[in-house]
Amino acid sequence: MRDFVELGLQAGRVNDGFTNVSDILRRLGVIAPDGALTNAAAVAFYKAPSAYPGMKLGLLAGNDKLDIFDLQQEDLPLIQLLKRAEFFVVSNIGRRFVFGEPGMQRREIPEIPREAVREAVANALCHRDYTTGTAVEVNVYMDFVEVVSPASSPRATRRKTIWREETAASSSATRASCRRSSARERSSSTARASPASSGTATSRA
Predict the structure, then answer these.
(1) Considering the chain, what is the average pLDDT of its residues?
(2) How far, in Å, CA of 120 to CA of 112, rounded?
(3) CA distance linking residue 193 with residue 27, whole number of Å
(4) Taking each helix axis from N to C terminus, what angle separates 114-127 and 78-91, rounded to the nearest 10 degrees?
(5) Phi-psi region of 80 (alpha: psi -120 to 50; beta: other; left: phi over 0)
(6) d(CA 186, CA 153)
(7) What is the pLDDT of residues 20-50, one digit of tens each?
(8) Contact of 58 with 137, CB cutoff 8 Å
(9) What is the pLDDT of residue 6?
(10) Which residues, other chains included, contact 2 with Cβ-Cβ below 8 Å and sequence gap of 6+?
């Protein structure tokens, strides 16, 4: 909740700093007349049940879901989910380094701007259908990042694709080159490891 208040102060949406939990909830209007927390408060400030994670983070080998490098499930409160998703995406895409900035410090610039990632994830979290137990998905593919906001029906599900422009054009060629190299290596290995009846190596190609 302190993070929420700090972000509100930075955006000019909150006038005063953190006082106590009850005061913040009251000022946000997320306490029902009977004193119970509203659904908005539960989503924003409490972890989701482990059986219904709020977000799934995936790192894929290609541009489909056939080969998965990493898959994580998060049940954090809303603001922490947003930060976690941004960190996950930026950590798994390309970055370039800029030197010579003031102070001679190295600055990392991700190939997809942090602002674009944050906006896509925030929209998915805010506009998703919370009546379903389906989590928001943030998937990092070879050429793009996809953010999926679940809905009660597949047709209503929102998908936001952010292309990795600096690598999309070359990744297909790189992948094809890697496949050709792998094929040559397998062929060469087969030739070395498959002795013929005469005792000499024979290629199966």
Answers:
(1) 76
(2) 12
(3) 73
(4) 140
(5) alpha
(6) 46
(7) 778 778 877 888 888 888 878 878 887 876 6
(8) yes
(9) 74
(10) 18
**Is 141 buried (19+), middle (13-18) or exposed (0-12) by CB count in 10 A?**
buried
At position 128, the amino acid (one-letter code) is: R
pLDDT surpassing 90 at residue 144: yes
Across the range 100-119, mean pLDDT stands at 83
The SS3 call for residue 74 is strand
Which amino acid type is present at position 181?
S
Residue ranges of alpha helices (H) inside the chain are 2-11, 21-28, 39-45, 78-91, 114-127, 165-193
**DSSP label at residue 48:** P
Consecutive H or E run containing 73: strand 68-74
- Which of the four pLDDT bands, split at 50, 70 and 90, describes residue 103? low
Cα gap 171→61, rounded to integer Å: 11
Q: Residue 182 corresponds to which tokens in the numbers above?
A: 């792998």
Compute the Cα dihedral for 186, 188, 194, 197 and give only its sign: positive
Main-chain dihedrals φ then ψ at residue 64, nearest 5 degrees: -140, -175
Read off the pLDDT band of 116 (50, 70, 90). Answer: very high
Q: Which two tokens stand for residue 89?
A: 């995406």
Q: Which long-range contacts (CB under 8 A, 24 or more apart) does 23-31 make?
A: none
Tell me what pLDDT residue 17 has: 67
DSSP assigned state of 147: E
